[in-house]
Amino acid sequence: MAVCVAVIAKENYPLYIRSVPTQNELKFHYTVHTSLDVVEEKVSAVGKALPDQRELYLGLLYPTEDYKVYGYVTNSKVKFVIVVDSSNTSLRDNEIRSMFRKLHSSFTDVMCNPFYNPGDTIQSKSFDSIVSAMMVQSS
Amino acid sequence: MAQCAQSVQEFVQDSFVPTVAVLCSADAERVTRRNNLSFPELLRPFCRLTSEGHLRDPNNLVVVVKGLRISVTGVNTQPLQPGEVRKLLSQAVSGCQPPEGLPANVVTAGDYDLNISDRSVKASVPWYSDWKDTFTQLSSSKFYTATTPWFEAYRENFLQSMPASDHEFLNHYLACMLVVSSREAAPTEQFQRLSQEQHRVQHSGEYTHPKWFIPNTLKYYVLLHDISDGDEQRADSVYEDMKQRYGTQCCYLLKINSRAAAAGPAEQMPDPWSQYLQKSRAQSPVSPEASDALSESHPLELDQTSNLGYPGNPSVAVNSIDTSRKQGGLPASSTPVAHGACLTLNDHDRIRQFIQEFTFRGLLPHIEKNIRQLNDQLVSRKGLSRSLFSATKKWFGGGKVPEKSIAELKNTAGLLYPPEAPELQIRKMADLCFLVQHYELAYSCYHTAKKDFLSDQAMLYAAGALEMAAMSAFLQSGAPRPYPAHYMETAIQTYRDVCKNMVLAERCALFSAEVLKSQVKYSEAAALLIKMTSEDSDLRSALLLEQAAHCFINMRSPMVRKFAFHMILSGHRFSKAGQKRHALRCYCQAMQVYKGKGWTLAEDHINFTIGRQSFTLRQPENAIAAFRHILINDSKQVATQQSAFLREYLYVYKSVSQSSSDVTLPQLPLPCLHSAQTRVFFGHERRLAEGEKQAATHVWLDQEYDGEQAQLWAELEEQVVGVANKGSVPIGFQPTQYCLSCHTDNLRYPLAVVEEPIIVEVVFRNPLKVPLALAELSLLWKFTPKDFSRPPGGVPGEALSNEKEAAVTALNDIISTEVIPEFTIGPEETKVARLQLLPHKTGELQVLSVLYSLGTVEEDNGTSEGSRTPSRPTFVRGRQDLEIQGPRLNTTKEEKTSVRHGPDHRLDPVITPPMPLLEVFFINFPTGLLCGEIRKAWVEFVNVSAVPLTGLRVASTHPEFFTFGCAASDLTPVTPTASEHCSAYKTMATPPSVAATMLVSPAMFGVSGDDRPTVAEIPLVGGGLGPGEALQIPLWLRGPDREGVHEINFLFYYESVEKNANHRVLRHKAFICASRSLSVRATACHSNTLPRRGGAEEEGGSSMLVFVDVENINTSEAGVREFHIVQVSSSSRQWRLHTCINPTGDRDSRLASRERGKLCFRATRCRTQEGETHARKYTFADLNLGNEQIVSSTTPCADFFFRRANHTRRQSLTPAGGADDGVTGVVQKCSEVELNIIVLWKAYVVEDNKQLILEGQLHVALQTVGKEACSVPQKEEAQEMVLLKFKPDQPPPVSRPTLEQLSRLIKTCLHYPESYDHPFPQKSLCMVPVTLTLSNCSLAQVDVIIDLRHKTTSPESLEVHGTFTWLGQTQYKLQLRPHEVQRLVLKACFFQAGVYNLGTPRVFAKMAQAGTMCETSQQSSMPALIVINSV
Known about the structure:
The structure holds 2 protein chains of 2 kinds. By secondary structure, chain A is an alpha+beta fold. Helices cover 40% and strands 24% of the residues of chain A. Chain A has helices spanning 25-47, 93-112, 125-136, and strands at 2-8, 14-19, 57-63, 67-73, 79-85. In chain A, strands 2-1-5-4-3 form a 5-stranded antiparallel beta sheet. In chain A, a hairpin with a 3-residue loop joins strand 3 (57-63) and strand 4. The termini of chain A are close together. Chain B is of the alpha+beta class. Chain B has 35 helices and 57 strands. In chain B, strands 12, 13, 25, 27, 29, 31, 34, 39, 41, 43, 45 and 46 form a 12-stranded antiparallel beta sheet that branches. In chain B, strands 15, 17, 18, 20, 22, 23 and 24 form a 7-stranded mixed beta sheet that branches. In chain B, strands 10, 11, 14, 16, 19 and 21 form a 6-stranded antiparallel beta sheet that branches. In chain B, strand 5 and strand 6 (112-114) form a beta hairpin. The longest helix of chain B has 37 residues, at 345-381. Chain B is rod-shaped and about 210 Å long. The relative contact order of chain B is 0.05. At the A-B interface, helix 1 of A face helix 22 and helix 24 of B. Chain B: This is Trafficking protein particle complex 8. Chain B: Residues 702-930 form the TPPC8 first Ig-like domain.
């Protein structure tokens, strides 16, 4: 379902980025990078009001010709971006939301690993498999 | 216009101006041609009115026309073909570049420079916030129009080249100037003819171009008078005539050319034409070289990298700058000659005056009149209300209208009204109002027209009306209504989707975006611009995307990444459009956002594109930098991609290096050089073995650095240097370092010797997934010759370097540089290269960098064989500097708080004059030995240098392992081969008998004092080795006493004959595997028997029994068959073995595996007188068990003994040192023996079906009587855990000699006949003489009391023995001197036959000096039985 899943550090460099191998990887990198502007915009718009009760899920960041880009920001300002094929109309907002939640919990597991150095790129098999599951499911 | 920032209002106004046609007679044309101008061109600079004009609208309100501009063009101007338009536009864009000279990464975005590169470097950590500030500051500070010059140029050209369309009249001709020269023969007729011509053009229908606004076009008659050669009178009269004919408002006499063209250029005249003519050329600051590059095709032929997403394969597009503009009579070949050469400033004023006159008197009244006319028509037709009504109805009528309209749209898109259609009249009026800046009226007219058109479903017209309605709404002063952006959107959509007219849509979008920007609606503007990008025009898409990107960055919260992304898209489109410079600029700007942010894939892509574009633009430095960047970083690209990058890099690099004449070689990025791991080795590469000879291991690069080992060697060297310097180590002593690495101390300049190689090991790492090939790898150095033989302070020679390729061979006689022809590094491999330098002169050398050619490894593809010839891979020459950072300093506070690094002089050796160089070879050097085995080996010393060496010494960690023999012994065979089957010992044929003795001083064996002789001087013939000389000397080895593998370090020290020269050392490390042989245990016992009279009277009296237990503990049953004990020798200062008292007859005792044998010996004290005088001398006594005596007092037996003895004594004697005085000492001394037993054995070993005889010796040091000593060092018992004690230990009790010890002071012995026959019947009393021998064992005087009265008290003894009595004196008091033996003759008296125990005398001993001490000793009497027989 997802064609690209990315985890971006607080400082806006990629911690993890993976896309469907058949697609053009570079393009997704560009897309994800560009979407950060929108994430920032949304966060700064929402963040002022009530920082505690901020909704982590940001919703659709922007649609491109072929893809929809969704965003999610953790409280520690780590961003998750999921790119979905626009042709896939069966996806509901709720499903995207649950994907993000799954991603977030897996990411938390990665962070809990005492051998993981925060700020390093994520190299975790379990995280990989979670992401693969998201990408495979209905693609 | 390019540089001036217009407001949006001005921009829109200037885009829609009244246009005036010009019809010129040939003569008039000739007049203006004198100024290199056509008539329209002549007027062009003066077309903007400086004063206000006025006109009245239909409601009689005065409209003020401010800053009106008119456009004057030749009537025969042809509209451009689409292809031409495209060419024109691309020229305009490519001709307009950001100012040269600025570095490429400085962003010139419209009116401001974003020095992003600076800021992003400075604020690298809290990066984004800083950026944001920068941008907000920049965007809030200046204009709203964020445009770039090339975009403005494009826009201007685009708008000018708009073809006149039927649905709007804005650029239709409103008036026509008819120009006739005053020199004409009949000017009036000429006017007539021109007027007719104009009429024909407008109304005949033959021409589709030009288009005219209104049927009755304003004709304006201009008489052009050339002042310099015309008749002014005539001109005036003609003008008068004209005024009468056409009315004053429609005529003008223009006088120009006040001076001759020949007037010198000295007079500085402004040239207002230049900026209007040949805009493209005037605006472009492009150097001719750069424009050449533009027109050149892409020379880079590469495999197109497949997955780059935005393939940058640029098709060669419109790049040539040939001005083929055919516009308004403008000559195709415009010369750079100054325009208006014949015009004075007065003439300029006249022209300005003329335009003003024309506009105010001619044009504006004409427009006013027409507006009134049209208004009247419209009002009379009262169509206004009708159309209003129907339109409203249609618009709001019902839900089905949109569908219907969509369906109809398609049909009606091409709808054309006839020119005189009433619907067009209102549009015409609106356009007129718009042109004279009456926007209110224009808006209402457009609005009405729009409704009309919509109701007719004339979509093109409607779109036009919508567009203009929006524009006029925007331009209305005071803004009574908001800008209707949706009008614009609808218009664009209609133009694009319905009418398929991209040009109009584009124009509309340009205006709309401009307006939106002016209203700070950047995101809308960006969206609009992005929407306008399409596949049909790359140039437009590129420009619009760039503008959109600028919009993103100008937003209130700038969207940097969107900016960057759209810049990339724009760059891509630019490159597709052939605008390489712009493409490069775009990518560079985008790069600033992506740089160093971890988005490596994107970064690599941008870098790659930048590299390519830079290369095609002949900016090779940038190209190389960009490619370099891709390669240096740990790229995550796949291997094929990397290899493509690499090949492209090499290609670019090669072409650059070929073209440039730069002397210094550039730095190469690949492979990575780990400078810190560089190692430097001074000296030759060692031959490790040469036949039988085994070279000293010394130091070599293959050896890993080991801190402990280094420490060990340094200590050894310090020892040997201390010995060489007579006991003191020089203050500045530094251990010699042959191999410098990051672990060694590199603070001082290392010393290298001339004619000895310097080997530098560099570590390369290939970060790529493709193999790299290096060729002609060598070192780059700098050398300053210096003669060290001359006094210091001399002028150092000129520094030389082998940097220049040509000089390499020439410099080989100073320093030969080794070149490795080929060196391949596999993918992601780390590899070392060893490069050698051989200096031939003394001086100071600096190794600077590594020189090599970098290339790719050709893969052997099966497919390539047929088609491609196997070409040599591209190689480029370059260097990489070896920059080694020294260790971090951490001593002072300042150094601790800051990060400072010390110097590292690893690579800066000083080449010193020749030094001796020693090579050491070992011959017959074993690897395995039995414990205690003696083996003779040979060592060869070779001086391979041209300088004599001297002072050869060796230091070792195991001095007991080897000996070179003492100087006195020279009986050994001279060559190693001769000695092969001989015993290592010196032997003499002697039958076994009493031990032969020999006195030897330890000093003979180089042992002095108690020091462990770690340093041994090596006896050299003549004290040194001459150049090239070799010397073989024997070396004895003795297997270590402990089994196992032993690491034995030898450090050979030698020095030059010259004074002040440094010493040198040579290291050798040997491994010896020792296996178990024999275990010898020995015990010494006091013997009670005194030496017999006569036999050994002079021996001093006391003797001992020595029991030697020998056990074969060898475990390798296969190898060693049996051991023979050949000889037992003793060595001591006080004792010697005397005889063998072994009971068995088996003298040559053999021991098979696990067998055990016992030997008994009697030892006697050495002669005291000799012992006194030569206290330091040892007595060696040999007791051979076979027929061959080994002289143990010579080399090698004694050597090893002394080395061994020292070793053990030091260990054992230290604790007993304190108890020397007093009784205890004396008493202890008494029981001390210092007897060393040397057991010499032979082992029969079968090896390869050959029997070998091995020899060896084992040492046992007997120290105390009765205490067993062992040859095999006892394993120290593992220290048990000691309980932690909190109370201090009780002080040890004052050591008092125990009874047992005291009892040994005096030895007693009864001498009597064993049996005595006595005739009791004859004589009842039997008297037997008994001799009691007392001997003092101690070194002190002893008082002895002998009491004979004592009776055995035990009842058993009474039973067994009968009673007897001693006769005579019953108590004796004696004093015994040290070692004195006294005999007492006693008499025992027996009464009957029987067995008696004579051992009843009690002996009490007391130290003579220790007066207070009462007698303490009781001689435990042993039973001494005597048998008395009765005869």
